[in-house]
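Input/output pair, single chain:
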Amino acid sequence: MEITINNKVVAVPEKLREVTLLNFVRDFAGLKGTKFGCGIGLCGACTVHINGAAARSCQVSVDEISGQQVTTIEGLAETTSGETLHPVQKAWIEEAVPQCGYCQPGQIMTAAALLVRNHTPSDEEIRQEMSGNLCRCGTYTRIHRAIVRAAKEDQNAEPS
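Output:
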């Protein structure tokens, strides 16, 4: 069995097929950006993309995603034509979003998936999409501003 993580094919040993994707990514693949938060899919800290859609990696077993494409926070920028940072990551920096930073990978992954599906989300659509991601530091206003900034910058980008 194989899965693709950040555009690299990874063979999954038999004994690891039933572990969560979160544990596989962190402990086997060594990608520590995806965080363990609650373990029950409620906080969003473990959000990754599976085939481009945001998913809680603590709720998915490796066996369930055989042959699928997983993108973690470490591989997010690779999806934007060789840039070192994804537009959402750039906006996060420009808006000084993180405080402790623990939830930020999951927040960024959720926001990036939203902007792929909806290039011009309304304030309500942003609030709705991000409502499942918890931030103990309460940086929700800055998170919202960063998503709005990333959406505007995407609209202003030169067509390829």
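The first strand starts at residue 2 and ends at 5. The beta strands are 2-5, 8-11, 47-50, 53-56, 69-71.
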